[in-house]
Amino acid sequence: MKQFITFVKKEFAHVLRDKKTLFILFGMPVMQILIFGFALTNEIKNSQLVIIDNSHDVATQQIITRIEASRYFETEKTMMDAHEMESAFQEGNIKMALVFPANFNETLLHENKAQIQVIADATDPNTANMLSNYVSSIIGDYQQDLNKTMEVPYRIIPEIRMLYNPQLKGAPNFVPGVMALVLMLVCVMMTAISIVKEKETGTMEVLLVSPFKPVLVILSKAVPYLFLSLVNVISILLLSVFALDLPINGSLLLLFAESTLFIVVCLALGIFISIKTDSQQVAMLISLMGMLLPTMLFSGFMFPIENMPMPLQVISNLVPSKWYYIIVKSIMIKGLGFSAIWKETLVLVAMTLFLFGISIKNFKIRLA
Amino acid sequence: MKETVISTSALTKRFGDFVAVNEISFDVYKGEVFGFLGANGAGKTTAMRMLCGLSIPSSGNASIAGFDVYRQTEDIKKHIGYMSQKFSLYEDLTVLENIRFFGGIYGLSNQQLRLKAEELIEQLGLQKETKKLVGSLPLGWKQKLSFSVAVIHQPKIVFLDEPTGGVDPVTRRQFWDLIYQAADNGVTVFVTTHYMDEAEYCGRVSIMVDGKIEALDTPGNLKKQFGSDSMDDVFYKLARGAKRGE
């Protein structure tokens, strides 16, 4: 045991002495959360919208007020003809135009229907779609309010509730993703590199000749990264609660327990890679290509797995981050308990056992 | 009566059809400096790995410090020291930290560690460098430190795998002074080398060719036996016949 502590101390010395790596390790999660939170957002805010009101009556005023109140748009009321509007679109100054025909209110009252022209810049189809949906729903709201005062025989009013994330914020989606990504990176890559480094510099040989048990060599290398990763989990959670206003709905303890499990899976993976490789570069490449990419692609945090072809969906099951992503989302966002995620937990446990099993087997073969 | 610390008989290691080490038999005595020579690929490293308990022999017998290489590898590890050609120190740790670490994994107590560390640092004249990172030391010092660390737990035998690669003759000479010092204290030194002048420093020398030990005697007797005036020539005469190589 004393030897084990000596060894772990040494590992901490390695990690803490390398200031650059340390900075990257702790800085990376912070950077990622901030980048994903504030730069790479797919929410649409403050889009330029021009309103051309040819009617100037009560109805148009009311609709315009509602649109102006929405945080999605930056509105501007002007008069322009079709040509001017087209050049404004071409220059990219506006994303959307709303044209009220003359006598809007009168037509509405007398003919019971009126038309509004909504023109959107569809060079980015997603944005155009979302913007036109926003406008339609604002107009729909107005229409409903009008109808309250009138007698209409049949009405179907869909009442939409966005569960767990009513404001449709991006953070609930990417915070669990970033957690999976960062832990994967720190644990798999750093563990793999630190073990392979001992092989490269020849110190592994000396350790193997010493009475210190080889299995303990490997385990003690994993300990510092377990701690570092837990620190990262804490910093990500603090940032998401205080900087992104994302509350943790479920049990914090459960979240930490599951995170520790995921970290252990990643460490096992790192250990396995290190046993199979002999140079730091190879270890790094494998961890990056083999772990980081699948985490981005197959965890469901960037691309929905349900939309993938069947073979890829099957492959996605082999990626540990996918299961962790589901777990974190369930606990953090949906506030669910262990009974909801025991299956995912079981998968991670099985992965850990499998990885440790083949690592130990392969390690022994190398010694023989 | 000389005390035998390494004893092998018909020790063999096969990898499939390839016989890396072919029935080698020899004895090494306490306090001896034993040179283990051979061309690249002759099987030195494989033989040494078996003696260190890192590799299980295919057949034959060997006992190291009185322990059996098949069943008592853990005991062997406690009683031997090892230094590889890469010096095997942690470059990003300080001199003192390296000493403490290697002493620590051999289970030295804190007090023993403190005493040993002081003694070592004084012996090597590294008083001013204890807080320096090993990476910043000159090669010769790293080498000496590496050797001292390999014998920090006072092993019965220390295995040195080409310990003097890449350093100048003066530093090599100083390194050999350390080796003699250890041998005088009763540590048996088992050393592989490519430098034939170093072979002359050894008490006895064995030369491996193609997995077999072709010659084993004192440098003086070997020179007589092969009618040569230098170990270089003896080695050349033997190794020339080798079929294996790199």
Question: Which descriptors would you attach to this protein?
Answer:
heterodimer; A: 368 residues; mainly alpha; abc type-2 transporter like fold; 2 domains; 4-stranded mixed sheet; 68% helix; 6% strand; B: 246 residues; alpha/beta; Rossmann fold; 6-stranded mixed sheet; 4-stranded antiparallel sheet; 9 helices; 37% helix
Describe the structure.
The complex is a heterodimer of chains A (368) and B (246). Chain A is mostly helical. Chain A has two domains: 14-40 and 170-367, no CATH class; 47-148, 3-Layer(aba) Sandwich (abc type-2 transporter like fold), CATH 3.40.1710. Chain A has 14 helices and four strands. Chain A has a four-stranded mixed β-sheet, with helices on one face. The longest helix of chain A has 31 residues, at 171-201. Chain A is elongated and about 95 Å long. The model of chain A has no long low-confidence stretch (mean pLDDT 85). Chain B has 246 residues and is of the alpha/beta class. Chain B has a single domain (4-239), classed as P-loop containing nucleotide triphosphate hydrolases (Rossmann fold), CATH 3.40.50.300. Chain B is 37% helix and 26% strand. Chain B contains nine helices and ten strands. Chain B has helices at 44-51, 73-79, 95-105, 110-124, 139-150, 169-184, 196-201, 219-225, 231-239, and strands at 4-15, 18-29, 33-38, 59-64, 67-68, 80-83, 157-161, 188-192, 204-209, 212-217. Chain B has a six-stranded mixed β-sheet, with helices on both faces. In chain B, strands 2-1-4-5 form a four-stranded antiparallel β-sheet, with helices on one face. In chain B, strand 4 (59-64) and strand 5 (67-68) form a beta hairpin. In chain B, helix 3 packs across helix 4. The longest helix of chain B has 16 residues, at 169-184. Chain B is globular. Chain B starts with a strand and ends in a 7-residue tail after the last helix. Chains A and B meet through helix 1 and helix 8 of A and helix 2, strand 6 and helix 3 of B.
